[in-house]
Amino acid sequence: MMQLGAMQDWKLRVTHLIDHAAREHATREIVSRWADGSESRTNWAAIRHDAMRMAQKLRRIGIAPGERVATLAMNHHRHLVTWYGAVGVGAVLHTINPRLFEDQLDYIVNHAEDRVLLFDKAFAPLVERMKPRWPSIETYICFDSNEPAEHFEEWIAGEDGLGEWADGDERDPCMLCYTSGTTGNPKGVLYEHRSTVLHAMTGMIPGVFGMDARTVMMPIVPMFHAAAWGLPWSGAAAGARFVYSAVNDPAVLSELIERERVNTSAGVPTVWLSLLQHYDKTGTDIPASLKTVVCGGSAMPRAMIERLMKSGIRVAHAWGMTETSPIGTTGAETWNWDNLSFDEQISVKAMQGRVPFGVEVRCVDLGDPEQVLPRDGITAGALQVRGPWIIKRYFKAEADATDPNQWFDTGDVGVIHPDGTLQLTDRTKDVIKSGGEWISSVELENAAIGFPGVAEAAAIGIAHPRWDERPLLIVVKKTDAEVCEDALRAFLGERVAKWWLPDAVAFVDQIPHTATGKISKKDLREQFRDYRWDA
Ligand code: AMP
Closest by alpha carbon to 172, among 61, 14, 399, 51? Predict the structure, then answer.
């Protein structure tokens, strides 16, 4: 029989990350700015000590490996402690998105069977309302107050921090995140120790977050969204300095970036939009310390990329999902980057980038998933992905619910260019089918928001007796702006194919969003259910 190789047994468990951080980057600071304006400073050694105390406490109250410990909190160092404390006892950390609807909150806590909930005082009213619907939760702990539940620091105060991490298999689960899902109930993604460590190592490479010991990272992505893009794990491995803010007010964020000399940040485009608006309004500019901005979660508008790049910032426009841990593609530069003009560079960054090692992508025909499409930069298809940190099946789903070849259907539509660059064009459910051809709702929207006076735009397909579907463009105007429909159509006519032009434009006061801030096409379709072209 073939023998195994002869290297050491060092399991890929996430507790190694915090041990490494405490040993090699002990004094590297973790700064937290709380909602009330107060600040705390701690470091990786203290984070490990507190996480161990929390693991000891969890063990003392009877939390067994594999059970779920939940959080309902914004970004701060105690939340970080909780990540390592929960996995340290072998439990599964479940980060809950407080922006979910109450029915969804009800569903996921019961589905996860959470036993402990640690929450910010800001969410106390929500917790009080939900308590009767969350019978599995026995212990409530408050991160920043001693009411309505015991204060986190008091809760762990009796422990000495001298215990041992729980041991187990590297394929044990360590974290659970639910996708917001625009249809049906939210679905849980159960990450493993091994997948998380591999993902954390990838997070450090230069084409991804590029974190090292000189990194001063402000993670604006909330710790409850898509595993916080793995930053709490990668940051420990890299020994990065973290600057957290529990509020997303642009004035607070920009003051922190400047004062703490933040050089790297990660967040969704809407956050950058509000930061850039803040700089415009105050006549100030992006602090010179900021060198890298990682942005994803939805498409980065071209104008935003241009503005950031003009300020000398390296933009990494990334694509990922809760189901992909979430690193999928990243804004890594191509080999010919330095030979491109500034304009060409912006065009490259406006796409979703390329995969790092460990992720495979392909597009298949929208009508025939057996047919793998060429990487020609033209043919759009359903995006599939696979790799060691990509979901195999949803939490508690039947084992056979997956493709035997493990290609995960992302629900996104895109084209892959010959150099491997992914360009997303839509979601499979949102793409508009007209006369047997596909119209990208996203491209229509992106073009429309370039028109002066348009604050937000969404395109949906409306049934058409002759063409199957035709696009309706729904527009929110900027405050006090006038938008002429004919001028908008003429503007779009220069940017998209003639047959893509929306048959009508509907002006509305607001467009519905999901809990993660994305346009809710499902709600829009519902809102325009009775719309008729002959109307
Ligand atoms: P979530 O799991 O909530 O993070 O949502 C994942 C979905 O967000 C993906 O399937 C995409 O539809 C969308 N998304 C993520 N990153 C991007 C991006 N850079 N551009 C466009 N859409 C994105």
Answer: 14
